[in-house]
Design goal:
Length: 428
Amino acid sequence: MSKAASVSKYEIMTISKKGTEVRLEGKTVAFDYYESILSPNVTATMAVIDTGGSVSYTKDYDKQERVGSIYNALPLTGREELKFKIRSTLGLLDFSTKPLFVNAAVNPDQNSQRESIMLSLFSEGAKLNSESTVMRKYQGNVGDSVKTLINQFLTGKSDRVKINEIQNTANAYNFVGNSKSVFEVCCNLGSKSVAAKNSVGFFFFETQDGFNFKSIDSLVSKPISQTYFKSEVLQENMDDPKNDFKILSSTIRKNQNVLNAMDAGVFYTRNIYFDPKTFEETEIEYKFTDGKLVKSLGKSAEAPDVNAFTKTHYTMLDIGTLEPTVTGSDNNDPKEYQAEAAMRYNILFSQLVDIQVPCNPNLRAGDTIRCEFEMITQSKIEQGSMDPVQSGKYLIVDLCHHYEPTRSITSLTLARDSYGLYTNKNES
């Protein structure tokens, strides 16, 4: 068997509730772990087959304390802890010290001899977030505010919740929590944040390493973590390590839809801002070509020539909660960056590609990888050559590590804001 088709091993797979722990290594038939730069928390799903004899009923449920399935005898009612450590050829997916929690348990198939159980899982950070209510006023650098929020409501309440990287911003932003959750506040702050050199747009998300608050520019500038290649055949030597980095399948999900992008105002937009303090309106037109997207994943971010705005956005300026002494410039006037931020987010997802590769738990949402796709040509000289347009540097948007008894794969949704090979001097 090639390494590309190697089977992962469940070294730890246990579920526990009120001191009762049940091993699931031989009962788990499928396990999926998810990360996304568009999600503030990691999630997972799993399928379990239980033939009974897993756990004894308590006297609260059965005076005879008979042995039954985990679904009924544990029982599964939500918030049970799941610890797991799964080893594949390229590394470990390890949540043995920071368990996930059962969100829902569904029993779709049951008979007298066996039952199937579908579990959905969420992280401890998500659990604590559901208990959070942000009330007070926060001032100063946005990155500092995000750190304060996470420490106050998440890491301060559990040593199993971690911060990976919170990037400071170039702007200050003063705001009031307004009874929102930590996740809602931090995600909202991303669109109001400015990085160095006045680049706009941040993402708040969780990986297996912890919470992240990173600018789009910092993500697309990250060194390439791994190179994958698309080829019709595996290496002749089936044990060749290169097989671990073969693209098993690929699908182009999105390849710039110009008309849809124009309807969304990606290239040329009109923005009308309403000041709730003065009742005045300010109108600003913003064209994509006016911006300075110094960081991109390909040769350059391109846009069609659009001669008039194609979308109008109406926005109420969130300045009414500030002290009278705080000026628009002190709070980084949103008129200066919100239009550009909307465009930056949209352009980032100009191209979307779904690929499947051999399971690689070392990958993270927010990492960049290099994909080498073969050129389609009738010329024998060019056979095997890399396509210079589709190949290049991509950002991992969504990630799923899939494990089952006969195989393990990693599914990735990749995004790119431009075509062609990355040519910046700092390419890694």
